[in-house]
Amino acid sequence: MISALLCASLAVRGAALVPARADAAVLFDGEAGIAGLHQFLEAAGTKSRALAPHEVSRELISVVGPDLLSGAPGWGLDPRGARALVFAGAAFALSAPVRDGRAARRALIAWVGAAGPWNRSTGTRNAIAAGSGRSQRAGIVRAQGGVLRLLTASGRGAEGLVAALSRIGARRSLIRTLAQDKHLQRLLPAASGKAAVIVRGEDPITFAVLDLAADASGMVARGLVGAPAPLLAGHAPDPSACADASLFCLRATLGPSGKAALALASQTYLSGTSPPGQLGDLLQQEAPRAESLAVMSNGIDVSLLDQPKSSLWALHLVAALAVASPRAQPLDLEANDGRRKRCLHAEGPVVQISSPCADLRVPLREGDGPALQAAADPVAIDAALSRLNAFDALRGTVPATLLGARLLVGGLLRGSKPFTLTGEPDPLGARIELRWSLR
User: Fold this and answer.
1) What are 114-126's pLDDT values in tens digits?
2) Helix, strand counts (H, E) of the chain
3) Which of 224, 250, 273 is the last residue of a domain?
4) 284 and 185 co-located in one domain
5) Which of 183, 186, 205, 303 could form a disulfide with 201 if both were Cys (CB 3.0 to 4.6 A apart)?
6) With left for phi above 0 and alpha for psi between -120 and 50, is residue 218 left, alpha or beta?
């Protein structure tokens, strides 16, 4: 079994190291898997200093201990083997193979001890922990499957996360791993690179398993997004649907699970903006029947940014859906909650909602190429957020977060080409490619 695991893909090996309750995991195949990321961060660091390798290394040391980007000097890590960064709730963890157990334990004691005193009677069979809440740190060095591994974690629940990591593979252990999740198992063989990411979704999207490839020119993530049925079908609508978009535009033709995902997305949007009456009811009725769609934005009204859900009002949004049954008579509806007027226009097979109201009519002509085609312009996004000032941060968490983020990575936004996302139908959900290129 161990021999088969060593020959398996990185995604399969990494998922076997991660508890099933994890929200996400980033996997690297030894130092070779990190080399491309280091090159990307060196290039990104010339545009935003916060993303320079030494700055990211400082954050990694604080969160999981070893400085993975520079080979983790002093921790005795093995340069080969699968490494997993794990995200579960409010805690972050690392599982990495060790070459020098004594060096790893000395470094672990120093790292955990920086958070406060720990129980000196704790033996090598139990994790050590110090601190509490968000400041908690925990870790252990122990053998798993014949390989000595370093397990560290920080944040709220860190000690419990390390305990779960350490019991993986133990006899009579009740800890399940991501590799044992029936929804994820069928997706794992699709990933075969030196770095990968696994992200848990929300029904009807179960998981995403993506290979990561990075260098000084940018980063590409490609792989499978899992669902009970295909998310996509056919070809996306013609590019003319995005003629009036400046921030972002998404075009897609939907499969069965794609229609379910659209219904969930529209419900989430409507619950955040709370439209009263017939307009919201009609949109929720039509979303599950949509065959294709185009969603775009050409601006953000930063004065409407405050808390997460209500901040959806700030986005200038136009969404057009092509439904199977054409409407016999045109329909126009209008809703106004005092913050912004929103309009719905239905004519023939197309239902269009705009917030705020817009005169344009989005064409949904049949196109060619991938079933999903989307792009976002980071330069335009940065320009829209440049209207935020320090007083806006007082209104709520969203403007405060965006203001801080722009101060840190605004240069990277201005130094990036448009983000692109493409997708093709797959029986397991959808096969996608997300591309981020630097100028």
Assistant:
1) 999 987 655 556 8
2) 11, 16
3) 224
4) no
5) 205
6) left
Rounded to a whole number, what is the largest CA-CA distance in the chain? 78
Judge if 220 and 243 occupy the same domain: no
Report residue 157's pLDDT band, with 50, 70 and 90 as the boundaries: very high
Total domain count for the chain? 2
Per DSSP, what are the bridge partners of residue 86? 25, 93
Assess if residue 234 is contained within a domain. Answer: no
83 neighbors 68 (Cβ within 8 angstroms): yes
The pLDDT tens digits of the residues spanning 203-262 come to 899 999 999 999 999 999 999 999 999 999 999 999 999 998 999 999 999 999 999 999
Q: How far apart are CA 203 and CA 200, in angstroms?
A: 10
Q: Are residues 207 and 261 in the same domain?
A: no
| Residue 36 included in any domain | yes
Instruction: Give the structural domain span for 172.
Output: 2-224
Q: Label residue 71 by pLDDT band (50, 70, 90).
A: low
C-alpha separations of 404 from 43, 307, 392 in Å: 21, 15, 11
* Residue 331 main-chain phi, psi, to 5 deg: -135, 135
Residues 6+ apart with CB under 8 A from 281: none
Q: What is the identity of the amino acid at 21?
A: R
Classify residue 146 by burial, with Cβ atoms within 10 Å: 0-12, 13-18, 19+: exposed
Q: Are 239 and 251 in contact (CB under 8 A)?
A: yes
pLDDT in tens, 257-293: 999 999 999 988 888 776 557 888 888 888 899 999 9
Same domain, 207 and 271: no
Same domain, 204 and 261: no
Token representation of residue 199: 């992200």
Q: Is 124 exposed, middle or buried (0-12, 13-18, 19+ CB in 10 A)?
A: exposed
Does residue 362 contact residue 352 with C-beta atoms inside 8 Å?
yes
Separation of alpha carbons 25 and 133, rounded Å: 22
- Reading the block at residue 25, the tokens are 């995991």
Query: Which one, of 368, 346, 361, lies nearest residue 296 by Cα?
Result: 361
Burial class, 76, CB count within 10 angstroms (exposed 0-12 / middle 13-18 / buried 19+): buried
